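#onboarding

Welcome to the new folks! Below is a worked example of what a typical request in this channel looks like: someone posts a single protein sequence, and someone else replies with the predicted structure as tokens. Don't worry about understanding the tokens yet, we'll cover that in week two.

Example request:
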Amino acid sequence: MRLRSTSTAMALALMALGAPGWADMPAAQAFLDAEIGDLSVLSRADQEAEMQWFIDAAKPYAGMEIKVASETLTTHVYESKQLADAFFAITGIKVTHDLIGEGDVVEKLQTQMQTGENIYDAYVNDSDLIGTHWRYQQARNLTDWMAGEGAAVTNPGLDLADFIGTKFTSAPDGKLYQLPDQQFANLYWFRYDWFNDQKTKDDFKAQFGYDLGVPVNWSAYEDIAQFFTGRDMTYAGGPAKVYGNMDYGKKDPSLGWRYTDAWMSMAGMSDIGTPNGLPVDEWGVRVDENSRPVGSCTSRGGATNDAAAVYAVTKAIDWLAKYAPPEAAGMVFGEAGPVPAQGEIAQQMFWYTAFTADMVKEGLPVVNADGTPKWRMAPSPHGTYWQDGMKIGYQDVGSWTLMKSTPVDRAQAAWLYAQFVTSKTVDLKKSDVGLTFARQSTIDSQHFTDRAPKLGGLIEFYRSPARIQWSPTGTNIPDYPKMAQLWWQNIGDAMSGEKTPQEALDSLCAEQEKVLERIEKSGVQGDIGPKMNEVVDPQVWLDAPGSPVAKLAEEKPQGVTISYDELIKSWGN
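Example response:
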């Protein structure tokens, strides 16, 4: 991460110390000179005009202190350590931007929902909670907020159409509930240099009968994992022993994200539809024509425990045991993320682009001397149950959320900060640091055209039509905090061997339905809450079109690959 210079920090700190420095242009100009520079999609005149708007809009709140929370991504570290100080110097609003774990963000948000206590004035929480916010109506819907109590503090240059994630933060009622702050996708990662080495290509084709390349299906991923695991790659500049897969398996909340973040839909457990399968989504939860959840188990038309789900969990467990480093089974998300950068991993299917910034540092075994990466990222392969038109990957959309329990003036001040850190003035620089994109103008900028060759396909992906098949959890999930915790507990039983995948998924879908039934009986979500189907013989649903599905006779068809270079060319058409 690029830190602000000492001189910039000192200049901003001095301006923030004196009240006369509040709410005037010199502080903004110092920020633009020393921190933003040329890294903005706006001209200098337009940057100053946007800063002047923040200065004027913030005057009623000068001297106020507010608290916001986000998880600990590089992007949010930059906001907390750099942008919060600049915002204080420019507006006089002091922001304590707490960096806490993702699970802690959800827990604090849940506590605020349950108690009405104003713990934080705003949260950056994943749009995975969109179904929760829409049904419980405890988050301010921003559409009405910007037209009403937030109108005077809504930036006329906000340009909602420029945000690439607003369709994920909007509910079936057509209202916007969250403002995207950063996004990253779950993609396939591989050693481009090894995949293009002639001896490696020849050896693979001799063994499997088809070309080594980006796997299109899970069969090819499995073949490639088998091929590389234990292989001596010293002839290609690699280590004497490599692994064909990287993952994590510790029973921990992050294990739940490992699966709810679209692993099941990648395998083919859902219905066709973007951004999420409909009526059955990537959690296996079915909704009716009114978007009301009606079941999770196959006996109610859900798919959380159908054959595609069992296949998905089984493959993850098998590949972790056979083709990943032994220590991976005891790792959590954050520990596993940096491992491919150490140079012993040939490919990883479940890899988040949030780790890109840590994979392009000079001197790493996976970076060339000229700064270009030895690796690339590409669309994830799909499982044998997957059909064209299904969701094939997850995209995290960390988004600003204002709770109704937050007093209006504090919410207004927090809304100003949320808009400042996502503004067109700031977004290009912030994205250059964290490489998590929220605005189309930033993605399309000349700066990222120039930087693209050193980012391993990240820019090509975000500029490609493939991007639309990667999406967060959708609106089928009525209580993300309660239901998400069920996943890591039950899947953990399968990962540890305490239960078979089928047993673990049977338990998971049953527990999800208990949550749905409790919400239905409580009546708190009214006519958009769950309305459970009657339990019937699962075969009734398995015989019906769409999801859930019965077990296929053959779950490992012929492997299919594609040349990465041809794939990139196809995106440009």
